Amino acid sequence: MSFNATVGASAPLYETLYGSTDMASLSWAEKQWVAWYIWVGNPVIATGLMSFLLHEVVYFGRCIPWIIVDSIPYFRKWKLQPAKIPTPGEQWECTKQVLLSHFTIELPTIWLFHPLAESLGMSTHHVPFPSWKVMAPQVFFFFFFEDFFHFLAHQALHTGLLYKHIHKIHHKYSAPFGLAAEYAHPAEVAILGTGTIAGPLLYCYFTQNLHILTVYIWITLRLFQAIDAHSGYDFPWSLQHILPFWSGADHHDFHHMAFTNNFSTSFRWWDRIFGTDEKYRQYRERVKAMKKKNVDKEEFAKLEQKLLEQVEREGIVAEREAETGVKAKSQ
Protein backbone atom coordinates (compact mmCIF):
# COMPACT_ATOMS: atom_id res chain seq x y z
CA MET A 1 0.00 0.00 0.00
CA SER A 2 1.38 3.44 -0.91
CA PHE A 3 1.99 6.19 1.63
CA ASN A 4 -0.90 8.34 0.37
CA ALA A 5 -3.31 5.40 0.19
CA THR A 6 -2.43 4.35 3.72
CA VAL A 7 -2.98 7.84 5.06
CA GLY A 8 -6.25 8.18 3.19
CA ALA A 9 -7.55 4.88 4.56
CA SER A 10 -7.01 5.97 8.18
CA ALA A 11 -7.53 9.72 8.15
CA PRO A 12 -8.74 10.08 11.80
CA LEU A 13 -5.69 8.28 13.21
CA TYR A 14 -3.43 10.20 10.86
CA GLU A 15 -4.81 13.50 12.14
CA THR A 16 -4.36 12.37 15.74
CA LEU A 17 -0.77 11.24 15.36
CA TYR A 18 0.58 13.39 12.53
CA GLY A 19 -1.82 16.29 12.05
CA SER A 20 0.85 18.89 12.81
CA THR A 21 3.67 17.13 10.93
CA ASP A 22 5.06 18.58 7.70
CA MET A 23 5.05 15.43 5.54
CA ALA A 24 6.78 17.16 2.64
CA SER A 25 9.93 17.54 4.73
CA LEU A 26 10.16 13.86 5.64
CA SER A 27 12.56 11.37 4.10
CA TRP A 28 11.38 8.21 2.35
CA ALA A 29 12.17 6.12 5.44
CA GLU A 30 10.25 8.48 7.71
CA LYS A 31 7.22 8.32 5.41
CA GLN A 32 7.32 4.51 5.55
CA TRP A 33 7.44 4.76 9.35
CA VAL A 34 4.29 6.89 9.31
CA ALA A 35 2.63 4.52 6.84
CA TRP A 36 3.34 1.54 9.10
CA TYR A 37 1.70 3.11 12.14
CA ILE A 38 -1.31 4.27 10.14
CA TRP A 39 -1.68 0.93 8.36
CA VAL A 40 -1.64 -1.09 11.61
CA GLY A 41 -4.09 1.36 13.13
CA ASN A 42 -2.96 1.07 16.75
CA PRO A 43 0.37 2.51 17.97
CA VAL A 44 0.77 -0.07 20.74
CA ILE A 45 0.24 -3.00 18.37
CA ALA A 46 2.36 -1.35 15.66
CA THR A 47 5.32 -0.87 18.02
CA GLY A 48 5.00 -4.32 19.58
CA LEU A 49 4.71 -6.09 16.25
CA MET A 50 7.59 -4.16 14.72
CA SER A 51 9.79 -4.82 17.76
CA PHE A 52 9.16 -8.56 17.70
CA LEU A 53 9.60 -8.89 13.94
CA LEU A 54 12.81 -6.90 14.08
CA HIS A 55 14.25 -9.22 16.71
CA GLU A 56 13.29 -12.41 14.85
CA VAL A 57 14.48 -11.22 11.43
CA VAL A 58 17.79 -9.88 12.74
CA TYR A 59 18.49 -12.84 15.02
CA PHE A 60 17.82 -15.65 12.57
CA GLY A 61 19.01 -13.59 9.62
CA ARG A 62 22.40 -13.15 11.28
CA CYS A 63 22.55 -16.83 12.30
CA ILE A 64 22.07 -18.13 8.75
CA PRO A 65 25.53 -17.03 7.49
CA TRP A 66 27.16 -18.84 10.42
CA ILE A 67 25.16 -22.00 9.69
CA ILE A 68 26.51 -21.85 6.13
CA VAL A 69 30.07 -21.23 7.36
CA ASP A 70 29.81 -24.27 9.67
CA SER A 71 28.88 -26.43 6.69
CA ILE A 72 31.92 -25.44 4.59
CA PRO A 73 35.21 -27.18 5.54
CA TYR A 74 37.28 -24.35 4.05
CA PHE A 75 36.51 -22.14 7.07
CA ARG A 76 37.72 -24.70 9.64
CA LYS A 77 41.18 -23.11 9.71
CA TRP A 78 39.59 -20.14 11.51
CA LYS A 79 37.45 -22.27 13.81
CA LEU A 80 38.50 -21.75 17.43
CA GLN A 81 37.64 -25.34 18.33
CA PRO A 82 37.98 -27.05 14.93
CA ALA A 83 37.18 -30.54 16.20
CA LYS A 84 33.68 -29.45 17.26
CA ILE A 85 31.30 -28.63 14.43
CA PRO A 86 27.59 -28.36 15.34
CA THR A 87 25.41 -31.03 13.79
CA PRO A 88 22.03 -30.28 12.16
CA GLY A 89 20.40 -32.01 15.13
CA GLU A 90 22.16 -29.71 17.61
CA GLN A 91 21.23 -26.65 15.58
CA TRP A 92 17.57 -27.71 15.43
CA GLU A 93 17.45 -28.44 19.17
CA CYS A 94 19.01 -25.04 19.80
CA THR A 95 16.49 -23.33 17.51
CA LYS A 96 13.56 -24.86 19.39
CA GLN A 97 14.85 -23.62 22.76
CA VAL A 98 15.50 -20.16 21.32
CA LEU A 99 11.98 -19.97 19.89
CA LEU A 100 10.54 -21.11 23.25
CA SER A 101 12.27 -18.19 24.96
CA HIS A 102 11.24 -15.76 22.26
CA PHE A 103 7.56 -16.66 22.49
CA THR A 104 7.27 -17.18 26.25
CA ILE A 105 9.43 -14.29 27.49
CA GLU A 106 10.15 -11.75 24.78
CA LEU A 107 6.81 -11.69 22.97
CA PRO A 108 4.67 -11.02 26.07
CA THR A 109 7.18 -8.47 27.35
CA ILE A 110 7.30 -6.59 24.06
CA TRP A 111 3.60 -5.70 24.25
CA LEU A 112 4.28 -3.88 27.51
CA PHE A 113 7.20 -1.99 26.05
CA HIS A 114 5.29 0.69 24.13
CA PRO A 115 3.18 2.01 27.03
CA LEU A 116 6.15 1.79 29.43
CA ALA A 117 8.48 3.52 26.99
CA GLU A 118 6.05 6.33 26.23
CA SER A 119 5.31 6.80 29.93
CA LEU A 120 9.04 7.46 30.39
CA GLY A 121 9.09 9.93 27.52
CA MET A 122 10.35 7.79 24.63
CA SER A 123 9.28 8.74 21.11
CA THR A 124 7.80 5.83 19.13
CA HIS A 125 5.54 6.73 16.23
CA HIS A 126 7.05 10.20 16.03
CA VAL A 127 8.84 11.72 13.05
CA PRO A 128 11.25 13.08 11.98
CA PHE A 129 13.99 10.76 13.21
CA PRO A 130 16.86 12.03 15.34
CA SER A 131 20.20 12.65 13.63
CA TRP A 132 23.16 10.27 13.74
CA LYS A 133 24.99 12.78 15.93
CA VAL A 134 22.24 12.32 18.53
CA MET A 135 21.89 8.55 18.19
CA ALA A 136 25.56 7.51 18.15
CA PRO A 137 26.46 8.51 21.74
CA GLN A 138 23.17 7.05 22.96
CA VAL A 139 23.99 3.69 21.38
CA PHE A 140 27.48 3.76 22.89
CA PHE A 141 25.99 4.40 26.35
CA PHE A 142 23.68 1.40 25.89
CA PHE A 143 26.67 -0.78 24.97
CA PHE A 144 28.59 0.46 28.02
CA PHE A 145 25.66 -0.01 30.41
CA GLU A 146 24.73 -3.46 29.14
CA ASP A 147 28.31 -4.68 29.18
CA PHE A 148 28.79 -3.80 32.86
CA PHE A 149 25.37 -5.15 33.82
CA HIS A 150 26.11 -8.39 31.98
CA PHE A 151 29.56 -8.64 33.59
CA LEU A 152 27.98 -8.62 37.07
CA ALA A 153 24.85 -10.68 36.30
CA HIS A 154 26.79 -13.28 34.33
CA GLN A 155 29.10 -13.94 37.27
CA ALA A 156 26.09 -14.32 39.56
CA LEU A 157 24.67 -16.89 37.13
CA HIS A 158 27.84 -18.94 37.59
CA THR A 159 27.11 -19.57 41.26
CA GLY A 160 25.19 -22.32 43.06
CA LEU A 161 21.49 -22.64 42.34
CA LEU A 162 21.50 -19.94 39.68
CA TYR A 163 23.92 -21.98 37.65
CA LYS A 164 22.42 -25.39 38.35
CA HIS A 165 18.83 -24.43 37.55
CA ILE A 166 19.24 -21.59 35.04
CA HIS A 167 22.60 -20.87 33.42
CA LYS A 168 23.62 -24.52 32.94
CA ILE A 169 21.42 -24.72 29.84
CA HIS A 170 23.47 -22.06 28.06
CA HIS A 171 26.69 -23.93 28.85
CA LYS A 172 25.52 -27.11 27.16
CA TYR A 173 27.82 -26.31 24.25
CA SER A 174 31.49 -25.97 25.20
CA ALA A 175 32.06 -24.94 21.58
CA PRO A 176 29.25 -22.43 20.89
CA PHE A 177 27.79 -21.56 17.49
CA GLY A 178 25.73 -18.62 16.27
CA LEU A 179 22.29 -19.98 17.09
CA ALA A 180 23.41 -20.64 20.68
CA ALA A 181 23.63 -16.92 21.46
CA GLU A 182 20.13 -17.01 22.98
CA TYR A 183 20.05 -20.71 23.81
CA ALA A 184 19.16 -20.21 27.44
CA HIS A 185 16.63 -20.78 30.19
CA PRO A 186 13.73 -18.31 29.91
CA ALA A 187 14.72 -16.90 33.31
CA GLU A 188 18.21 -16.16 32.00
CA VAL A 189 16.72 -14.45 28.96
CA ALA A 190 14.77 -12.22 31.35
CA ILE A 191 17.75 -11.55 33.64
CA LEU A 192 20.33 -10.72 31.00
CA GLY A 193 17.74 -9.08 28.75
CA THR A 194 17.18 -6.55 31.53
CA GLY A 195 20.61 -5.12 30.80
CA THR A 196 19.68 -4.66 27.17
CA ILE A 197 16.43 -2.81 27.85
CA ALA A 198 17.20 -1.06 31.16
CA GLY A 199 19.87 1.15 29.57
CA PRO A 200 17.45 2.78 27.10
CA LEU A 201 14.67 3.06 29.67
CA LEU A 202 16.91 4.72 32.27
CA TYR A 203 18.41 7.03 29.66
CA CYS A 204 14.94 8.00 28.51
CA TYR A 205 13.73 8.60 32.06
CA PHE A 206 16.58 10.97 32.90
CA THR A 207 16.93 12.78 29.56
CA GLN A 208 13.44 12.63 28.00
CA ASN A 209 15.27 12.49 24.67
CA LEU A 210 15.19 9.06 23.04
CA HIS A 211 13.55 7.71 19.90
CA ILE A 212 12.70 4.05 19.58
CA LEU A 213 14.59 3.97 16.28
CA THR A 214 17.78 4.43 18.30
CA VAL A 215 16.72 1.48 20.45
CA TYR A 216 16.17 -0.62 17.32
CA ILE A 217 19.64 0.25 16.06
CA TRP A 218 21.05 -0.70 19.46
CA ILE A 219 19.15 -4.00 19.53
CA THR A 220 20.35 -4.85 16.02
CA LEU A 221 23.99 -4.17 16.88
CA ARG A 222 23.67 -6.04 20.18
CA LEU A 223 22.25 -9.10 18.41
CA PHE A 224 25.08 -9.02 15.87
CA GLN A 225 27.58 -8.81 18.73
CA ALA A 226 26.04 -11.71 20.68
CA ILE A 227 25.70 -14.01 17.67
CA ASP A 228 29.19 -13.26 16.36
CA ALA A 229 30.67 -13.80 19.85
CA HIS A 230 29.10 -17.28 19.86
CA SER A 231 30.04 -18.08 16.27
CA GLY A 232 33.21 -19.99 17.20
CA TYR A 233 35.28 -18.31 14.47
CA ASP A 234 38.13 -15.85 14.71
CA PHE A 235 38.87 -14.39 11.28
CA PRO A 236 41.79 -12.04 10.56
CA TRP A 237 39.19 -9.37 9.75
CA SER A 238 37.14 -9.92 12.93
CA LEU A 239 36.43 -6.72 14.83
CA GLN A 240 38.61 -7.58 17.83
CA HIS A 241 41.66 -7.35 15.57
CA ILE A 242 40.66 -3.78 14.69
CA LEU A 243 39.43 -2.70 18.14
CA PRO A 244 41.61 -4.44 20.77
CA PHE A 245 39.08 -3.72 23.55
CA TRP A 246 36.29 -5.54 21.65
CA SER A 247 35.63 -9.01 23.04
CA GLY A 248 34.62 -11.02 19.98
CA ALA A 249 34.39 -14.78 19.47
CA ASP A 250 37.94 -15.47 20.64
CA HIS A 251 37.14 -13.98 24.05
CA HIS A 252 33.76 -15.62 24.58
CA ASP A 253 34.60 -18.98 23.05
CA PHE A 254 37.19 -19.44 25.79
CA HIS A 255 34.49 -18.79 28.40
CA HIS A 256 32.39 -21.65 27.07
CA MET A 257 35.39 -23.95 26.80
CA ALA A 258 36.99 -23.15 30.18
CA PHE A 259 33.77 -22.22 32.02
CA THR A 260 35.64 -19.51 33.92
CA ASN A 261 36.91 -16.08 32.86
CA ASN A 262 35.58 -13.55 30.34
CA PHE A 263 32.18 -12.69 31.79
CA SER A 264 31.55 -9.46 29.86
CA THR A 265 29.90 -9.26 26.47
CA SER A 266 31.05 -6.46 24.20
CA PHE A 267 34.26 -5.16 25.78
CA ARG A 268 37.31 -6.71 27.41
CA TRP A 269 38.07 -3.98 29.93
CA TRP A 270 35.96 -5.15 32.92
CA ASP A 271 37.50 -8.62 32.83
CA ARG A 272 40.95 -7.05 32.62
CA ILE A 273 40.30 -4.57 35.45
CA PHE A 274 38.87 -7.19 37.82
CA GLY A 275 41.26 -9.97 36.83
CA THR A 276 38.60 -12.32 35.48
CA ASP A 277 40.59 -12.96 32.32
CA GLU A 278 43.79 -14.33 33.90
CA LYS A 279 43.35 -17.90 32.67
CA TYR A 280 42.37 -16.63 29.24
CA ARG A 281 45.53 -14.52 28.94
CA GLN A 282 47.65 -17.45 30.10
CA TYR A 283 46.01 -19.60 27.43
CA ARG A 284 46.69 -17.01 24.72
CA GLU A 285 50.33 -16.80 25.80
CA ARG A 286 50.67 -20.57 25.51
CA VAL A 287 49.17 -20.50 22.02
CA LYS A 288 51.53 -17.68 21.06
CA ALA A 289 54.51 -19.68 22.34
CA MET A 290 53.37 -22.72 20.35
CA LYS A 291 53.24 -20.64 17.17
CA LYS A 292 56.88 -19.67 17.67
CA LYS A 293 57.95 -23.31 17.59
CA ASN A 294 59.33 -24.51 14.30
CA VAL A 295 56.67 -27.15 13.61
CA ASP A 296 54.52 -27.86 10.58
CA LYS A 297 50.79 -27.21 10.43
CA GLU A 298 49.87 -30.79 11.26
CA GLU A 299 52.06 -30.86 14.35
CA PHE A 300 50.79 -27.46 15.47
CA ALA A 301 47.18 -28.64 15.09
CA LYS A 302 47.94 -31.61 17.36
CA LEU A 303 49.57 -29.41 19.99
CA GLU A 304 46.68 -26.95 19.85
CA GLN A 305 44.08 -29.70 20.16
CA LYS A 306 45.92 -31.11 23.18
CA LEU A 307 45.86 -27.68 24.80
CA LEU A 308 42.15 -27.24 24.01
CA GLU A 309 41.36 -30.58 25.61
CA GLN A 310 43.31 -29.66 28.72
CA VAL A 311 41.45 -26.35 29.08
CA GLU A 312 38.12 -28.09 28.59
CA ARG A 313 38.93 -30.70 31.25
CA GLU A 314 39.71 -27.91 33.67
CA GLY A 315 36.44 -26.27 32.65
CA ILE A 316 34.46 -29.43 33.47
CA VAL A 317 35.96 -29.39 36.98
CA ALA A 318 35.18 -25.68 37.38
CA GLU A 319 31.60 -26.25 36.25
CA ARG A 320 31.14 -29.05 38.77
CA GLU A 321 32.46 -26.81 41.52
CA ALA A 322 30.05 -24.03 40.56
CA GLU A 323 27.09 -26.40 40.44
CA THR A 324 27.79 -28.22 43.71
CA GLY A 325 29.57 -25.51 45.68
CA VAL A 326 32.29 -28.04 46.55
CA LYS A 327 35.83 -27.31 45.49
CA ALA A 328 37.59 -30.24 43.83
CA LYS A 329 40.62 -31.69 45.57
CA SER A 330 43.89 -31.00 43.82
CA GLN A 331 45.56 -34.06 42.40
TrEMBL record:
A single cellular component GO annotation: membrane
Keyword rRNA-binding: no
Keyword vocabulary terms for this entry: Membrane, Transmembrane, Transmembrane helix
Pfam family for this entry, one: FA_hydroxylase
Record-linked InterPro entries: Fatty_acid_hydroxylase, Sterol_Desaturase_Related
GO molecular function, one term: iron ion binding
Domain Fatty acid hydroxylase residues, every copy: 140-276
GO biological process, any: lipid biosynthetic process
Subcellular localization: Membrane
Location (main, coarse): membrane
Residue stretches spanning the membrane: 33-54
Highest taxon of the lineage: Eukaryota
Descriptive protein name: C-4 sterol methyl oxidase
Higher taxonomy: Eukaryota, Fungi, Dikarya, Basidiomycota, Agaricomycotina
Gene transcribed to yield this protein: ERG25_1
